[in-house]
Amino acid sequence: MIRTPLRPLARILTARAKGENPDAIERENIRLRHEEMRDTSRDQAEGRLLMLGLFFFAAFTLVGARMGLMAAAPPSEPQVAAVGPSITAQRADIVDRNGRVLATNLATYSLYAQPQDMIDPIKAAKSLVKIFPDLDEARLEKDFTGDRTFVWIKRTLSPEQMQAVHDIGDPGLLFGPREMRLYPNGRLAAHILGGAGFGREGVDSAEVIGIAGVEKEYDSWLRDPANAGQPLQLSIDLTVQAATREVLDAGMHMMNAKGAAAILMDAHTGEILSMVSLPDFDPNDRPAPLVKGDAADSPLFNRAVQGLYELGSTFKIFDVGQALDLGLITPDTIIDTKPIVWGKYTLHDFHNYGSKLSVKDVIRESSNLGAARIALLFGGDKQKPFLKSLGLLDPTPVELVEAGGARPQYPTNWSDLSTMTIAYGHGISVSPLHLCTAYASMLNGGIRVYPTLIKTDHPKIGPRVVSEATSDKLRTMLRYVVTSGTASYGDVKGYDVGGKTGTADKPDPQGGYYTDKVISTFASVFPAHDPKYVLVVTLDEPSDNTGKDPRRTAGYTAVPVAAEIIRRDAPLLGLRPEIVPDPQNAITLARN
Predict the structure, then answer these.
(1) CATH topology of domain 94-233
(2) 137-193, pLDDT tens digit by residue?
(3) Catalytic entry in 127, 235, 313, 389
(4) How far apart, in whole angstroms, are the C-alpha atoms of residue 51 and residue 62?
(5) What is the CA 592 to chain-centroid distance, rounded?
(6) Which residues contact 571 (CB under 8 A, 6 or more apart)?
(7) 429 belongs to the catalytic site
(8) Going by CATH, does the domain composed of 239-572 fall within 3.40.710.10?
């Protein structure tokens, strides 16, 4: 920059020539220079203030916008960085055959503490115990005042509990978002669904894994992101399941039974429409397994699948069906029913039915001696493979993780005595699901079916086990049992029920059998002339005490319960009551 001299020579000479004071020129130039410097400084200051104002305006605008976004966003807790792969919490729903939800996910929060950030850990511990009475106050105080930097308090919280913890106001109590498994129908289908729990856990999510039932059997599938959230559709009908459970629960209490099981199966596809085991549990609050005693005493025990029982006379149709199929007998063949002496054993009937019965009366009256002699017609060498072809000697392939451990029990040495006792359901233990599957295979026209809990349009169909003619004869005999035999209480008008009763003494763990404890079973098919469904009802230690003496046989205990289940379920399944022609004269029976 060119500066103007304070004493310019030309002006000084001119001033002296005029007699003026040259110092006045210098003073004037100094004044002008100061004014110029002042103006320049003012301009610079104004520029700086403008820039600073713009900066503060932009900063406050940015902060305000950020605060607005944070206020509008849902609240979230700070996340702790974790080492390792991220946790995928999403799990597919489980629905019934009509798409109604059986299991789904619920967004919730977990509660944890960072003691180093707590203001008053003692007060916080006391307040938490008031909200969660199951917590140990002394343990919390120890954890909060010790060296720990992270403490899990609750895996899941209800909204009310979360608000109560908020009200404590301690910054060291933090919430982590997560999903939990919810079963909106409570106890309904508890043994089928099984339940789920948490696997790997982080503060921001948790791994939901199946721990029993279908949840565990299909755990990988339910957690697979490749399925894009597609639900797992089961074969059960929620409405039918609810009706079956309600009737079975009432029947179990009326018959003073220790437990009960009921299975309703499509006779042609093996699809299970309903499966109930009592007592049951709520999978939302799954109880701990028993650590001692009999596993069957736990509500977690699935009597329909895991329970292995001698199911008594329900087995008689298998040997009769095999003998019919081999051409050894007809329904009218006369069978010797006198007591059988075999070595040191003597076999008797429950009642004295006389010395001879026709095959159809062996089934109607439920003669053990008749069934034993029919089995001897073909022997154990043929009996064993036939029962195996029905799936009665292997675990059921149903989609429950518990099914693999339910292996039928039968003698390793299949003697002639075993052949006779197995003919009427003693000396062999199977589950009610085994029995239901075998009945469906024998009565649907003779085609082997496989039990399934998954709805499918392409069921697995097995080989033929008996001829269609044999299957038809068996259904006629089972209908005869209901109309004039041991299952007369099972006759549900309009639904042509056929079935077989079975009452077996319970084995005593100390040896032998109890004299006052039985397993009573009714295995049925309906309609008998056009088989669509098979129902098996089993009661553990029932006793009908309405009469003078306790009655424990299936005809008085399991049969009435099964009849009421059919009466409730058949309309729900879309079956309309039928008017069946009288086979004697083909005249339609009608009643005003």
Answers:
(1) Penicillin-binding protein 2a (Domain 2) (3.90.1310)
(2) 999 999 999 889 899 898 888 889 999 999 999 999 999 888 889 999 999 999 999
(3) 313
(4) 16
(5) 46
(6) none
(7) no
(8) yes
